[in-house]
Amino acid sequence: MVRRFRWSFRVISLTLLILVIAGVAVAYAGDPGGTATGGKDSYNAIFGGQSVKEAVGHLTVALNFVWVFLAAVLVFFMQAGFAMVETGFTRAKNASHVMMTNLTIFAIGALAYWAIGFGLMFGGASGIASLGGTAPLNGLFEIVKGWGIFGTKGFFLVGGTYDVGVFMLFLFQMVFMDTAATIPTGGLAERWKFSAFCIYGVFIAGLLYPIYGNWVWGGGWLASMGTNLGLGHGYIDWAGSSVIHAVGGITALAGAMVLGPRIGKFNKDGSANAMPGHHIPMAIVGTIILAFGWFGFNAGSTLAATDLRISVIAVNTMLAGAAGSIAAMLYVWKRFGKPDPSMTANGLLAGLVAITAPCAFVGPVSAVIIGSIAGVLVVFSVLFVERVLKVDDPVGAISVHGVCGIWGVIALGIFADGTYGAGYNGINTTVRGLLFGGSSQFFAQLIGAVTVIIYTFALAYGFFKLLDAIMGIRSSRADEIAGLDLPEMGMLAYPSFAVSSLDSVNGQEAVSAETDINTNEDR
């Protein structure tokens, strides 16, 4: 027994000794300090016969690819933020319906943008050097030389556009489109048919958003006003205050006007009733998610990790959002006696929307001013839309995105300080706003702002009116009173407790289907 034990001990000891020796040999054979990794052998394995210049170019584009991909992921995560904000600011009986629109707009929009929208928007935007050139996108349709209105390449991402650079641009721009498309889902919440919503998703992703986007980012006529008319650098919108947010907010305005207010929102004398959201904590968490994703939104729009302006853009984004939130909170607190979490959240989003256009061209003091003005502006706008226009916007989408988006592009024309932007839209000088000697840039911004208002409202209003005439876009009165979750989705968001079909409005129960306290006729 003792001999057997000694023999086993010797075997185990010998085995351990061999493993130790092997481990030391392996350790010394490797490169634990990293000093040898990436040498000549690695270079040859990765780049083959490429020259050093070719290899550096490849690595630079690869780094930019990774940066743009990470930024796109951040922007995509904003969809969760929008879903939570909109659902939290609406009533419990519609929670599944609102969540479903926020989920489905991504799927519908992605396919429509892949098939049609991307080609119309970027089909003529060749030469994006940071992503390898994207040369296959060289099909800009121009009404006259230099005045493009839509692209003609890139549909379905086939043929010559089956290209890594084009695909990376598509991915980043697709999630931007998704942001614009999801904004109206909050402004039209709680009373539109899901079937009508689905058709709307194809319309905004495939036509409305891409056309204006081409004019600004795809080499179209607004971007060319600098080279064609000498108006600064042409119209500039760095990351989408107008292309994304104003388009979404104005579309929400047009849709809400055609759709009409929710039952019980307005009394016969025109006064408005409060219809509080059911889950303010959810909305606040959604707001924080949106603020987090906004760093990808704005800083990612460099389309290059090698553009060190990223730091300025990120800090300006943070400061403007914070300033907007505090400004809204203090103004509401002073005016109504309470700080109001929902308006404080919308103030944060208003500041972020406003800084989205000028974030790359202004300094931190200007960012705080821009965000602060947006924070106060959004409160004024919410009250104006409800009390003067008599438009029902459950989440404030028209004000946050539409009004503050317009303010953002105008702010660029005022506060751009001339420290960045050389080469933007083909103009060699840096971008300067009105306060820094750039009056022509200010006028270019005004032209772009007026254009997005007229174009978006006219096209969106016409679309919603036509769709309403064809199929009706509003849910039935009985479904709206009961809540859209069961009638349209077939399931409640909160099945563990009953959701009453009679909602509280300022302490009063909503009326039955036979009594109409709403000035809007039953659709």
What does this 3D model show about the protein?
The strands form 2 sheets. This protein has a two-stranded antiparallel sheet with strand order 1-2. It is globular and about 85 Å long. With 523 residues, the protein is mainly alpha-helical. It has 16 helices and 4 strands. A hairpin with a 2-residue loop joins strand 1 (140-144) and strand 2 (147-151). 62% of the residues lie in helices and 3% in strands. It has one domain: Ammonium transporter fold (Orthogonal Bundle), CATH 1.10.3430. The model is unreliable at 500-523 (pLDDT under 50).
Helix fraction, binned, reads: 55-70%
SS-derived structural category: mainly alpha
Q: Please, what is the CATH homologous superfamily?
A: Ammonium transporter AmtB like domains
Tally of distinct domains: 1
- Tell me the radius of gyration: 27 Å
Order of helices and strands: HHHHEEHHHHHHHHHHHHEE
CATH architecture: Orthogonal Bundle
Average pLDDT, all residues: 90
> Whole-Å distance between the termini?
95 Å
Oligomeric state of this protein:
single chain
Portion of residues in beta strands equals under 5%
CATH top level assignment? Mainly Alpha
Please work out how many helical segments DSSP would assign.
Answer: 16
For the biggest β-sheet, the strand order reads 1-2
- Biggest pleated sheet: 2 strands, antiparallel
Tally of extended strands?
Answer: 4
Contiguous runs where pLDDT drops below 50 for at least 5 residues: 500-523
The CATH topology label is: Ammonium transporter fold
Shape: globular
